[in-house]
Design a protein that fits this description.
The protein is mainly α. It is 60% helix and 0% strand. It catalyses: 2'-deoxyribonucleotide-(2'-deoxyribose 5'-phosphate)-2'-deoxyribonucleotide-DNA = a 3'-end 2'-deoxyribonucleotide-(2,3-dehydro-2,3-deoxyribose 5'-phosphate)-DNA + a 5'-end 5'-phospho-2'-deoxyribonucleoside-DNA + H(+).
């Protein structure tokens, strides 16, 4: 199959595997989503959800985050990796939201990426999930899967992977595909133990085919077999 057919095959397969894939960060509005995605950097969604279960009860608005000392906020999120820098980013972000955006999260990708602690990935998630704007956020799962399946090159940067996916996937499928690629990487094509023997995409996955090849027998093993047979 050609590159376009291969991409369609991948999209249809992960759609069948994870038809209901969606953002797993628990939130009730764009502001909570922004905070949750910021906290999720180098941290699992499951851990973030445990922390935000109480965090979002205590802090309802940007003003609430600004009303406590930084040390108190650090203590509230200390189970999260890099909690000190993230607490600082949250308060700086909230100050900008209060002063510049009437305490509302801006629905602009450019304005989002100008907020402390908000990079392209966070902005893409917020734009897609909170505001319904088609986007592809490249996290560690999306990057790994894209490279294993040969959609992107092994040495591509995160930005290059995003640009390649946007070019090869129909725009109306960007957001759904983003979530499905995450689920595929999180629950199937895992970093340490991908389920290659059961993978419906093994036929187009060079990485998977390499992993499935039996290890070549060493010369010593052949000699040992010969000795055993002669004995």
């Amino acid at each position: 199959m050609n590159a376009k057919q291969k991409m369609r095959h991948i999209l249809d397969t992960i759609a069948d595997m994870f038809p209901d894939a969606e953002c797993e960060l628990v939130h009730s509005n764009p502001f909570e989503l922004t905070i949750a995605v910021l906290l999720s950097a180098q941290c699992t969604d499951a851990t973030v959800n445990k922390v935000t279960a109480t965090l979002f009860q205590k802090y309802k608005s940007p003003q609430d985050y600004l009303s406590v000392p930084l040390e108190e906020l650090e203590g509230d999120i200390k189970r999260i990796g890099l909690f000190r820098s993230k607490a600082s980013h949250i308060q700086k972000l909230c100050r900008i939201l209060v002063d510049k955006y009437h305490s509302e999260v801006p629905a602009s990708h450019k304005q989002l990426t100008e907020l402390p602690g908000v990079g392209r990935k966070t902005a893409n998630v917020v734009m897609s999930v909170a505001f319904g704007v088609p986007a592809i956020a490249v996290d560690t799962h999306v990057e790994r899967v894209s490279k294993r399946l040969g959609i992107a090159k092994p040495d591509d940067s995160v930005l290059k992977v995003e640009q390649t996916l946007m070019r090869r996937i129909p725009q109306e499928e960007w957001s759904d595909t983003h979530h499905r690629l995450i689920f595929f990487g999180r629950y199937h094509c895992k970093a340490q133990s991908p389920q290659c023997p059961l993978c419906p995409l093994l036929d187009v996955c060079k990485e998977g085919k390499k992993r499935m090849k039996p290890a070549p027998k060493s010369k010593n093993s052949k000699s040992n077999t010969k000795i055993a047979n002669e004995g």
